[in-house]
Model the fold of this input.
Amino acid sequence: MDEAKLLLNAYYEILYERLDSNKNILAARIEQLLSEEIVKQGFENFDNDKINAYRDVCLAFVDERIETYNPIGFQYTFDRIRAHEAAELELQLNWYDSRAEFKALMEAAHSKAVARLKENNLRPLADELIKEVGAFPDNSIISTYHAEPALNKLPDYIVARAIEETIR
Done:
């Protein structure tokens, strides 16, 4: 395994640990962000049932994101033979385009790993990477939502914001 892959594995492992240990903080922040965004965007017809439904979707998305970063299952997600085809299909299904963000993550990981990777500084470098680029694909989600807010994008956006605030 090359140095950049080692660093990315540490990056995902730290994200998993931080998010898994901060589920309560994420849930509270999601509730607050959701209420604020509904008012800010003027989304209409939001009674308590609808707010609760959106909150539940956001919480389910948090669990999904945490499992995406899970170091135990991570290798099955990215080391498959058809990983490229699966990634392309995911890009087509998502309402945001994260290719540029993923490229930036890979470039940052590669430059940090090549220049400074040693066994004893893998986690600090991964922490630097998180501070520098955030949790993939949050930046893509946030910027696409800001460009064109919509209800169908709201749960992903709220989760991305809550994650970014929690990991940094």
Q: What stands out?
A: Residues 48-69 form the longest helix (22 residues).
